[in-house]
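Minutes, structural biology subgroup

Action item carried over from last meeting: produce the structure token record for Transposase (Paeniglutamicibacter psychrophenolicus). EB confirmed the sequence was re-checked against the source entry. Recorded below for completeness.
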Amino acid sequence: MITAHRHRLAANTGKEQALMDLFPAFRDTLANLSSMTVKELQGGRPLAKWRILTDLPFDTRLSARQVKSAYNQVHAAHASWLALLETAVREAITASTLTGIRRTTLHRINSRHAWWATDLTLPWRQTPGGELIHATHTYAEKHPEKCVWVPVDPADLRLARHLAKHTSARKVRRPDLSRVRTLVLDSTIARPERPTGATEYSWWVTVATLVRGKPVRIPLKNNTYFENLAAQPGAKVAGVIQLHLETTGAGQPAGAAISLLLNTPDALQRETGTVVGLDFGMANALFATSDGRLLGQRMLRTLKSWDQRLTEIAAEHQSRGLRLRDNPEYRALNKRIKDFVTNEIGRVLNILARENGEDRIRELVVERLDFRGHGMSRAMNRLLTRTGRACVKARLAALGPKHGITVTEVGSAYTSQECSGCGYTAKANRRGRHFGCRFCGKKLHCDINAARAIRGRRSIPLTDHHSALQRRTTLQRLDQRHRQRWGPGPAAGADPGLAGARAAGQPSCLAGKSTGFHGIPCNYVLYMR
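Output recorded by EB:
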């Protein structure tokens, strides 16, 4: 596991200014290299990991080694972008009405990131009946003589290009490196080292500046938490560093900081413990767990009070025709909210991860996150979406290598309406913070019920609700699971239909039957007991 640990500089003004001067030059170079990379991708060329960086078509104040370090950052950013774009396009294809060979072809174009290819030939396997089926890349390499190589229809390539363009414009925007505030400097231009002699500083960093032959050597203020981690067996400080540009509330440069990267051995996977479902509530608490806990309840109250103040400031500035970003109180409050959300999420997840004994968690089952709603203003929803979602995903991803906890993600559609007891799903089940199943009569806190429903989807993962078609499919699968458990439907054999039964506020298997214990059909009572 690689983690970044920020250190303050113990440098004079001249050395710190030399580091800050790197940002304008690096930003220009990063923007130009990024533009070149995108043009190559859209011209049908794959993302190049290595390239010759001489005779560039633009001027730069960076040295050759600094340009190579800048391209490494560009490559990492665009590789991440392509992976996210692939996921988004795959979801669009899955949610479409396309079928057969064309649907498979689009999936294969997407997996190859060949959206902008001018021509493409794919390997297929032919069945004895003459039908073409998908041939994997590994199979095609091992058995090329058994494959049928078929050129892709230009219409399919145009459709793939349209999907990539639409998705990139609306969901997964390409990286903008012209305003980065963190530079990743390779070991060829930045080198952290421990001092050989006695000194009050544990680490020094040598960084190449814009002046050739005149690097700066800067001491870092001690970071106790980092030193404790670095002293653990197997921990190793990486040669790469992160250089941060710190700014004021108005966005003006205020200084520099350096993060050292620490590579520590991953924790062993936990083989004993409990499986806990985790629901991101935001209505009553930060998290609800399937074992009945509501964690971070004060967070929502605090955010709502801050949101009220943000709304007042926004209304006042709008009436006066002023820009919000020029208001120091507004900027300070936004920063305070970001820090508060980040710290609260980290605190709660650390509480869950550090539990010991028989109750310790070996697996967390979570849903895909959505921070919208819950009585917040649109500005607050945007703020939470940008900060909270990214923070939760990063913290959840770190639970495995840091604590050995497995994190399983399931679809979030209808988790608030599904009964964690019998599996019946209906909008009428939930009333505010109270959950009362219309089928079995189970009553529970809505967020705790959702956490238990999420845990119940661990064994049968369901798709998410990115489209109306996927939501209908999820609802049908939930209804099918419920029918398989409790019965096929009315005794007469005439199923009134899913839509009609749900519109009436009761499950289809209750239609035409007398009810007994907690509204359960009489012939089900003995089975449940």
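Discussion: Confidence is low (pLDDT under 50) at residues 489-529.
Next step: EB to file the record with the rest of the batch.
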